[in-house]
Amino acid sequence: MNLERAVVIPGDGIGPEVTCAVQRILEKAGAAIEWVPHDAGLTALAAGDEVLPGDTVAAIEHHGVALKGPCTTPVGKGFSSVNVQLRKRLNLYAAVRPVRSLPGVKTRFENVDLVIIRENTEGLYSGVENEVTPGVVMSMKVASENACTRIARWAFRYATHRQRKKITVLHKANIMKLTDGLFIRCAQQIHKKEYPNIEYNELIIDAGCMRLVQDPSAFDMLLLENLYGDVVSDLCAGLIGGLGVVPGANIGDTHAVFEAVHGSAPDIAGKNVANPLALLMSAVMMLNYMADHRANPGAKAVADRLRVAYDSALEAGCKTRDLGGELGTDAFADAVIERLQ
Ligand code: ATP
Question: Is the full-model pTM beyond 0.85?
Answer without folding.
Answer: yes
